[in-house]
Amino acid sequence: MAITLNTSFSPSESHAAAAPRAEIPFQISLGPTLVQPSVGWLGGEAAEALFPSARPLGDMHGFQLHETSNLLIGTASSFVGPSIADTTRELYTRLLAATEGRPLYRIWNYVPAINHTGNGLENYQAFCVGRSLVFEAAHGSHYRRALPAASAVGSAGDLLTVVFVAGREAPQHFENPEQIAAYDYPREYGARPPSFARATVARFGAKPLIFISGTASIKGHVTIAPASLSAQLDCTLDNLSLIGRAAGLGEHLRAPAATTARHFKIYVRDPADYDQVRTRLEHDLIRPGDHAIYLQADICRAALKLEIEATLIG
User: How many Å apart are CA 195 and CA 133, to the nearest integer?
Assistant: First the structure.
C-alpha cells in the first residue's frame, strides 16, 4: 500500500548527489503518519508537512483519518482494477462517507499512468467520470457548488491515492476570470468534466486557510504554448496571480498576514526541466521562508510541462 507509519526516512537536498533525481520517493507527513503516493522527489523540502499537529483518529470507510482543532484529514489508496472510473467511484464514495457530511476544502489525487489511453479514454478522463458521478449522486444537479480545490497528477504503480481536507465551517470557492471553470469544460476533454474549484478559502476567526488548485498553462480551456517551457511558466504564473487576486491575496499570492505560511508544490513532467523551473520560480514566486517541493509527475494533459499548487495557512 502507499500508506506507511515508517518515520525513519528523511531525505534532504544533499541526497540529490547520492541518487538520481526523481528516484527518491515523495512523502506527505500527517502527524506521525507518512504517505508515499509514488511520485518522485526532485528538490526543495524533503516532505510535505502542512498539518504537523494532526492527530490520528483511526480508520473509517477504509480511510486513515486525522484531525486538528478545525480540520478532518484523510488518506486512502485503492488498486486500480479493469476500470479506473469504477475504482475512482468506489474510492470517492468511501471518501464522502468518511467526511460525515463536512464540506470538503481540498483533495489531492495521484492517478496511475494519468495520460495512458485505454478503452477510448485517458486515465485522467476516466478518473473524472468516476469522481463527478459520486459528487452528483451526493449533491444533486447543483453539485458544482460543493466542489473543493483539487489537483490530479500522475503516479507510478497501480495505486490510486487520495488525500482530503474537510472542516465544519462552510468554505468559499473561487474561479480564475481568464479560465473556464473546469467543471464547465466542453466534451472534447472527456465524457464528464473535471470536478474541482480553482481555489477554496476557509476562515477560522482571523486565521485563513487558502488552497490554490493545481495551476497550469491554460487560458479559457485551451493549453497555451505546448512546445515552450518558458511560455508555460509565464502563463502559469499569470494564472496564479489571477486566482490569487480572486481569492483575496492580491498580486503574487501575497499572504494576508506576515504570520501566514506559504507552501508550494511544483510538478515537473521532464526532470531535465527542473533547474530552469526552479531558477525561474525562485526569482518570480518563491521567497525566503516559503516551503517549496519540486516533484516529477505527469500532468493531466500530455502537452503540459508543469503545474503549481499553493496552500497558505494563517
Answer: 10
